[in-house]
Amino acid sequence: MTVEKTPFIQLSEPTKYHVRLIEGQYQKLRRLVSWPMIALFFGLAWVKVDNVPWLFFSFAERKIFLFGTVVSWHDLPIMAGLMIAGACLLFFMAVAWGRVWCGFACPQSIWTWIFIRIEQWTEGKANIRAKNDQLPLTGKRLLRRISKHALWLATALFTALTFTGYFLPIRELVYDLFTLNSSLMVSGWLFSMTALTYLNAGLVREQICLHACPYSRFQGVMFDSDTRTVSYDAGRGEPRRVRKAGTASRQNLIATDLSNPAYDTELRDLSASNITGGDCIDCTICVQVCPVGIDIRDGLQAACIDCGACIDACDEVMLKVGKPKGLVRFASEHELAGSKPRSLFRPKLAGYATVVLCALSAVLYGFMNTTDLLIEVRRDRQTLFTKIDQHTVCNQYNLKVENFDHNQQQISVTVTGLEQLQLHGQSTISTTDDNATWRAYRVCTSQAKQANSKIEFVFTSGVKEIRKSTTFLTGSI
């Protein structure tokens, strides 16, 4: 009896590849989505309206400034609701169109494309970079390489500064940095953020999407047979065409710049020299433009971010060889099998849409009922009561007023509940100078008839009034 051995597949080491930039409808759409997001990221940190930041997370004031609304840390469940709604919206998009968030709006992908463009601007296009890698790194090539990394570091530092500017005042942050007055903690944070951005977008790139991003791992659970993802139509493209001897080789095609007029001639040669096969001429352009370095013709893969670069590249090739576009396109398994595409109103999508609407409704309700003024009243536990004379009794209280509305800065304090109550302490609290600090108050009366009575502290700011009940002790009078 012979035992069949399990075949062992030796995985090749990953090789360095250079991403070719391509134009097309999906690349225009990606820029239409990503550039406004980039502008908002770098711009919102500087925007102030009436000297109030438009988007700022203040640890010192324990406030979140959110587009003209001040949210307290006690309203953080609202932010959790926003995250839940965003996650469910991401799941909805994943079930409907795959990882389009990753390809069109994910910061990792956006910054990777920025760094690739810097690389092309300093060291040339992909085919030039590939050739130069085989040459010694000297002279102009060395200067170009240094310039690339310098611009990468500058972009990474600008990114780190902007991100930190949403938690620390960015104007003071920039001034302290360039005058060398930043604290050790802030400097260390900026250095770490700059290094991470430089490594992620410049050197690691697609490995983050494949190995660090959890979305690439659970996407298989989210997808179904009706999910429209970037797909290769194997029924139309296979078998790939066979070339005659003496025609342009794939290596020659790879070494040719996409914008070179000779590229069109080589494509036509490849197409005209085929003996038999499908529409795919095995030009590998779809692989060369892929930012994660996969071959879409191998089927759905965890690393694919659905950016559509291979669609634009393949469509261009199909037009040049006189074939219809769509060999690589957004399509579901049912569509590739020849079935009619199903509508978006499917049970799974409807479930995610319902959760998104519920979460957004809860968030909207939370924003309409945010905490403007938080007040705490505590009795002094060291001394229950103090008798001043035979009739007058005093109780000690600690009060804290935390204001989250910059329009109400003066809070008046009074006390009621017993006759002839006297309040000893600040009758007006300024939340501009000493917000959220404990203040000592003493309440006295000579008219208490019971050992235990209820009194109320009344806090007034304009038309807003808040009452806090507490106990007034007299003992045995």
UniProtKB/TrEMBL annotation:
<dbReference type="Pfam" id="PF13746">
    <property type="entry name" value="Fer4_18"/>
</dbReference>
<feature type="transmembrane region" description="Helical">
    <location>
        <begin position="76"/>
        <end position="97"/>
    </location>
</feature>
<keyword id="KW-0411">Iron-sulfur</keyword>
<dbReference type="InterPro" id="IPR017900">
    <property type="entry name" value="4Fe4S_Fe_S_CS"/>
</dbReference>
<feature type="transmembrane region" description="Helical">
    <location>
        <begin position="180"/>
        <end position="199"/>
    </location>
</feature>
<dbReference type="InterPro" id="IPR051684">
    <property type="entry name" value="Electron_Trans/Redox"/>
</dbReference>
<keyword id="KW-0004">4Fe-4S</keyword>
<dbReference type="Pfam" id="PF11614">
    <property type="entry name" value="FixG_C"/>
</dbReference>
<keyword id="KW-0479">Metal-binding</keyword>
<dbReference type="InterPro" id="IPR013783">
    <property type="entry name" value="Ig-like_fold"/>
</dbReference>
<dbReference type="InterPro" id="IPR032879">
    <property type="entry name" value="FixG_C"/>
</dbReference>
<feature type="transmembrane region" description="Helical">
    <location>
        <begin position="150"/>
        <end position="168"/>
    </location>
</feature>
<dbReference type="GO" id="GO:0051539">
    <property type="term" value="F:4 iron, 4 sulfur cluster binding"/>
</dbReference>
<dbReference type="InterPro" id="IPR014116">
    <property type="entry name" value="Cyt_c_oxidase_cbb3_FixG"/>
</dbReference>
<feature type="transmembrane region" description="Helical">
    <location>
        <begin position="32"/>
        <end position="49"/>
    </location>
</feature>
<feature type="transmembrane region" description="Helical">
    <location>
        <begin position="349"/>
        <end position="368"/>
    </location>
</feature>
<dbReference type="GO" id="GO:0046872">
    <property type="term" value="F:metal ion binding"/>
</dbReference>
<keyword id="KW-0249">Electron transport</keyword>
<keyword id="KW-1133">Transmembrane helix</keyword>
<keyword id="KW-0813">Transport</keyword>
<keyword id="KW-0472">Membrane</keyword>
<dbReference type="GO" id="GO:0005886">
    <property type="term" value="C:plasma membrane"/>
</dbReference>
<protein>
    <submittedName>
        <fullName>Cytochrome c oxidase accessory protein CcoG</fullName>
    </submittedName>
</protein>
<feature type="domain" description="4Fe-4S ferredoxin-type">
    <location>
        <begin position="271"/>
        <end position="299"/>
    </location>
</feature>
<dbReference type="InterPro" id="IPR017896">
    <property type="entry name" value="4Fe4S_Fe-S-bd"/>
</dbReference>
<keyword id="KW-0812">Transmembrane</keyword>
<keyword id="KW-0408">Iron</keyword>
